[in-house]
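[Automated response] Your request has been received and processed.

Submitted sequence:
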Amino acid sequence: MVSQTVEPFPMTATPDFNKTNGLVPAIAQDAATGEVLMLAWMNLEAWEMTLRDGFAVYWSRSRNRLWKKGERSGNTQIVREIFLDCDSDTVLLKVDQKGKAACHTGRRSCFFQKVENGSIRIISEPLFDPDKIYGQ
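Generated structure:
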């Protein structure tokens, strides 16, 4: 894996973690295309690590731990811009998605299930086999 230098973000603004029991939703959006890649969760520590290191770090509710996006797959997210919503309880990360996919299913985006006429239509195929990466 190639090491990259990323500029840290100043730590002056902080989401309101008190409103939401310590976690806030964090949306990752492709900085170049605007495509929504995923929704995850951040706690204060994930927020601070993201600001400090410039890579997206989230809180995994299923694993109950911090996770740097791409730590197993290599599909990291370099954070280019950060926005807070009007209530300061949702984070939007504009990222450069490194690697093929943001989704653990192997797809570019986690939003690949389109609802049409009450049914689900899969609109993208996996770009890699998640079993080979995650050993599921």
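Summary generated for your ticket: DSSP finds two helices and eight strands in the chain. The chain has a mean pLDDT of 91.
If you did not submit this request, please reply to this message.
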